[in-house]
Design brief:
This protein is about 25% helix and about 20% strand. The protein is α/β, with parallel strands linked by helices and about 180 residues long. The strands form two sheets. A four-stranded mixed beta sheet has the order 1-5-6-7, covered by helices on one side. Strands 2-3-4 form a three-stranded parallel beta sheet, sandwiched between helices. β6 and β7 form a beta hairpin. α1 packs parallel to α2 and α3 runs parallel beside α4.
C-alpha cells in the first residue's frame, strides 16, 4: 500500500490572477532630444539659427522611435520652438513627448493601460507581478492600484508564491432579517 500523498499546487488552485506590467511595455528605442544643444551657447534661442538647425537635422534617425523632448538648462525657450521641433518629428517618430525619458516611459505605460477593461478584475484576487525584465516606473504601480482597488476582492504585490498584501476588500455585512 502506497503512503504517498498527492502534491497539490496551492498557487494554481488559489484563483489568483497575475497582473504583469511587462505585458504592457511598448518595445522600441527611446531617444532624448535636449533642446539645449540647439541654443546659442546653450542659453539663447536665435530663431534663424534654430530654424536652420531644424532644416539640416537628420530626422530619419527617429523613424519608429519614441522621442522625449526637453531642455535641461535654465533658459527661456519659446513655445513655438517646441512646436517646430514636434512638426519636424511627426513624420518619423512613433511617438514624441515633451519631458524626460522617465516621463516618456510613464506616458507609454499609461497609454497601454488605458486600453485595459478593468472591470474584468471585479471581485478577483489579483497579484501585481513584482519582477520584470523591463523597468516599470513606480508611478505605474500606483496607477494600477487606483484602477484595481475599487474592483478587486484582494490586491497583492510580488509573485503568486510569495506576495505582499496590499488591500483586502471588507466583507459585506450579512443582511439583517426582520
Amino acid at each position: 500500500m502506497s503512503t504517498e500523498k498527492e502534491i497539490v499546487n496551492k498557487v494554481a488552485s488559489s484563483g489568483l490572477v497575475t497582473f504583469d506590467l511587462e505585458d504592457y511595455y511598448q518595445p522600441g528605442e527611446r531617444i532624448l532630444i535636449d533642446i539645449k544643444d540647439w541654443l546659442y551657447q546653450e542659453l539663447i534661442l536665435k530663431e534663424n539659427e534654430f530654424r536652420e538647425k531644424l532644416k539640416q537635422h537628420d530626422w530619419v534617425q527617429y523613424q519608429n522611435k519614441f522621442v522625449a523632448v526637453t531642455c535641461t538648462v535654465d533658459s527661456i525657450v519659446p513655445t513655438w520652438a517646441f512646436m517646430l521641433l514636434a512638426t519636424a518629428l511627426q513624420p518619423y517618430a512613433k511617438m514624441f513627448f515633451m519631458g524626460s525619458l522617465e516621463r516618456l516611459e510613464e506616458r507609454l505605460f499609461e497609454e497601454s493601460l488605458s486600453r485595459i477593461h478593468w472591470n474584468d478584475f471585479k471581485d478577483r484576487k489579483v497579484v501585481v507581478k513584482g519582477c520584470s525584465k523591463v523597468i516599470v516606473p513606480t508611478s505605474i504601480y500606483v496607477v494600477v492600484v487606483s484602477h484595481l482597488k475599487p474592483l478587486v476582492s484582494s490586491l497583492m504585490f510580488g509573485e503568486p508564491c510569495s506576495t505582499v498584501p496590499i488591500y483586502k476588500a471588507p466583507k459585506s455585512p450579512p443582511h439583517l432579517i426582520k
